Amino acid sequence: MPTAHEAETQHTGPEEADQPPSMSSHAAPPAAPSRNPCCLCWCCCCSCSWSEGRRQAWRPSGESKLQPLPSCEACTPSPEEVRTWAQSFDKLMHSPAGRSAFRAFLRTEYSEENMLFWLACEELKAEANQHVVDEKARLIYEDYVSILSPKEVSLDSRVREGINKKMQEPSAHTFDDAQLQIYTLMHRDSYPRFLGSPAYRSLLLQGGSQSSHEA
């Protein structure tokens, strides 16, 4: 049996050795909730509700020119007009029906954004209100120049750098160099394939059948 001294020692021994480790009284604060950044800079590298709201405010009127042309007598090309599209790319692009047919062809090649960008630049150059110019320039950059956009057009580094500088103070001609580069790309790359496509041959045949019926 333990002596009285040993029993006393066992009774008064440290009890903390048998206790689980205590938690610190200073609990760690909860992590701050993440916030979605709201970019108000011209580059618009991220989206926010403000940006989307302003985008929708402009798009209805801006995109009205970009939708497929309605089927009407004024928009139906004559046989002569269809044949002139093969004479030069300029004649094709100056024809509303020609642009519509060419845009439909670009869609089949997954490069419709080239035409959309070119048309957006044309609309921007016709704008005189500086506030609207700023807004449209920002949206064009966001849709067709930003590397984050799924509709980004192919521009070389020189032209892209020039746009970045001009976007500090946008004007109606901010994208002139880029528009010319995309125009040249469509002319040299897509236009020859369009002229050899079944879509264009079909338009020629339709024109021929119309001529025979009229005769």
| Terminal CA distance | 132 Å
Give the number of helices.
Answer: 10
Structural class: mainly alpha
Percent helix among the residues?
A: 55-70%
Number of DSSP strand runs: 0
Query: What is the subunit arrangement here?
Result: single chain
Specify Rg, calculated over alpha carbons: 33 Å
Query: Mean pLDDT, nearest integer?
Result: 76
The percent range for strand residues is under 5%
Query: What low-confidence regions span 5 or more consecutive residues with pLDDT below 50?
Result: 11-73
Spatial shape: elongated
Q: Give the biggest beta sheet.
A: none
Strand-and-helix sequence, N→C?
A: HHHHHHHHHH
Q: What is this structure, in a nutshell?
A:
With 215 residues, this protein is mainly α.
Could you walk me through the main structural features you see in this protein, from its secondary elements to its overall organization?
This protein has 215 residues and is mainly α. The protein contains 10 helices and no strands. It has helices at 4-11, 49-62, 79-84, 89-93, 96-108, 112-125, 130-145, 157-166, 176-195, 198-214. Helix 6 packs across helix 9 (176-195). 19% of the residues are buried. Residues 11-73 have low confidence and may be disordered.
